[in-house]
Amino acid sequence: MATERDSRAPGGSSAAPGAPGGAGTRLRHGARPASTGPRLLTGAKVVLPTGVVEGGQVAVDGRRITGTAPAGAETVDVTGHWLVPGFVDIHNHGGGGASFSGTPEQILTAVRTHRLHGTTTLVASTVTDEMDLLVRQAGLLSELAEQGEIAGIHFEGPFISPCRKGAHSEALLRDPDPAEVRKLVDAARGHARMITLAAELPGGIDSVRLLAEHGVIAAIGHTDATYEQTVEAIDAGATVATHLFNAMPGLGHRAPGPIAALLEDERVTVELINDGTHLHAAALQLAFHHAGAGRVAFITDAMDAAGIGDGRYMLGPLEVEVSEGVARLVQGGSIAGSTLTLDRAFKRAVTVDRLPVEHAVAALSANPARLLGMSDRIGSLEPGKDADLVLLDAAFDLKGVMRQGEWVVAPQLP
Ligand SMILES: [Zn+2]
Fold first, then answer.
1. Rounded average pLDDT over 244-269
2. Which positions ≥6 away from 354 have C-beta within 8 Å?
3. For helices 104-115 and 131-146, angle between their N-to-C axes, nearest 10 degrees
4. Which residue segment(s) compose the domain that 50 sits in?
5. Which pLDDT band holds residue 160 (cuts at 50, 70, 90)?
6. 401 occurs within a structural domain
7. Are the C-beta atoms of residues 66 and 59 closer than 8 Å to each other?
8. 363 and 400: one domain?
9. β-pairing, 98-99 with 94-95?
10. Which intervals carry biased composition (Low complexity) (predicted)?
């Protein structure tokens, strides 16, 4: 599938250099702009779906990006900085010492932690647990989705393979019985966005069909499927590879397994955890070469320690030790999610992996926005969309975050 091209009229881009904006009041470098009211960000390298605009500008009025600067707009000179769309994380278990399996307060702590790192849209992921606990958590999370704090729920497990369980509790795994899958979808009250499952298990293909019929993304992951079984699952409606390469058989020349099937099919978007631990740089390049920049979504798969640091944490019912930023199960040593934030994934993509900035933006914003069916509101810096944006300095370090027109991180300018 090609990179997102929004259907809105291409003219009148807010980032076109030289757009009218003279009415603005100039703000000194270093001064703190007000968090609301019409604003004009000028002098930036603005990353649009069509490419990078040097010396571009973005106008914001209320919660939206506008085509021209609103009257009386406050000018914020961000010369030398990058402006990219807010990041969209479709697979994230927590951060700031809290998880999406916790209380509403803990869930908000995790959401806010990731917002400070540029994630303006986040799908909350659960881990394998007792069905009734997952049903209860789905109810809690759906309330936060209704309040606009999260963009929905991703259930990772319990319908996954014991052979590829990763950091999921083996005793609680179950086959993907469509009736049970349906139970989680119903409990989420319209906010179930994605379920990761192993489609080769009994009931797997029927469950994929059920999810596709309900408009919920069926994601293939924590799977021991063959190439042929994976093709069957994609034909049944699966459209996402859950952290491609991790928790699935490797690419063999006689047994190409799920990786080949997921990479070659135009209908599939592949998640990648770009933290330098989960993937070798060459595996990331392989995914980009085969899937193309339009079919990759960078995710964090973050757990509680993201945004905090080393120590002992819980991942669902399992204990995790985080050392030098790498999270591993205390029992067995499996990698247990990441401590990644998407600003770091972005910086790594353009500095270590040397991806074009536009490709990093596609993988962090446009592609996941499209997957969620939210491209009309988020995923690019175009007029009419939510003013969700991230300000980065020349070294790609985060210097500001705006969400729905409000500064979550006020611009830190030299
Ligand atoms: Zn996983």
1. 97
2. none
3. 60
4. 25-85+379-409
5. very high
6. yes
7. yes
8. no
9. antiparallel
10. 9-18
User: 35: pLDDT confidence band, cut at 50, 70 and 90?
Assistant: low
Sheet with 153-156, side-by-side order of all strands: 87-92, 119-126, 153-156, 192-197, 217-220, 240-241, 269-273, 296-299
Chain mean position to CA 413:
27
Going from the Cα of 165 to the center of ligand 1, the distance in angstroms, rounded, reads: 8
Distance between CA atoms of 79 and 101, rounded to whole angstroms?
41
Does residue 45 share a domain with residue 118? no
Q: What is the pLDDT of residue 314?
A: 85
Residue type, position 33, single letter: P
Q: Is 387 a domain residue?
A: yes
> What is the whole-number distance in angstroms between the Cα of residue 47 and the centre of ligand 1?
31
Q: What is the average per-residue pLDDT within 211-223?
A: 98
| Residues 317 and 394 occupy one common structural domain | no
Count structural domains, the chain. Answer: 2
Is residue 285 predicted with pLDDT exceeding 90?
A: yes
CA of 77 to the centre of ligand 1 (A): 41
Residue 206 lies in a domain: yes
191 labeled binding residue? no
* Ligand 1 center–CA 17 separation, angstroms: 43
Start-end of H helices in 48-148:
104-115, 131-146
Give dist(CA 44, CA 77) in Å, integer.
Answer: 8
- Residue 48 sits in the same domain as residue 156: no
Give the mean model confidence (pLDDT) for residues 109-115: 98
Q: Determine whether the annotation assigns residue 222 to a binding site.
A: yes
Residue 164 pLDDT more than 60?
Answer: yes
High-pLDDT (> 90) share of the chain, %? 84
Is 156 annotated to bind ligand?
yes
277 C-alpha to center of ligand 1: Å? Answer: 14
Q: Do 160 and 136 fall within a single domain?
A: yes
Q: Are residues 126 and 192 in the same domain?
A: yes
23 annotated ligand-binding residue:
no
Average pLDDT, the chain: 91
pLDDT at 327 over 80: yes
Query: Measured between alpha carbons, how far apart are the two ends of the chain, in Å?
Result: 40
* Ligand 1 center from residue 319 Cα (angstroms): 15
**Whole-angstrom Cα distance, residue 238 to residue 339?**
27
What is the CATH number for 67?
2.30.40.10
Q: What percent of the chain has pLDDT over 70?
A: 91
377 is known to lie in a ligand binding site: no
Residue 217 annotated as binding site: no
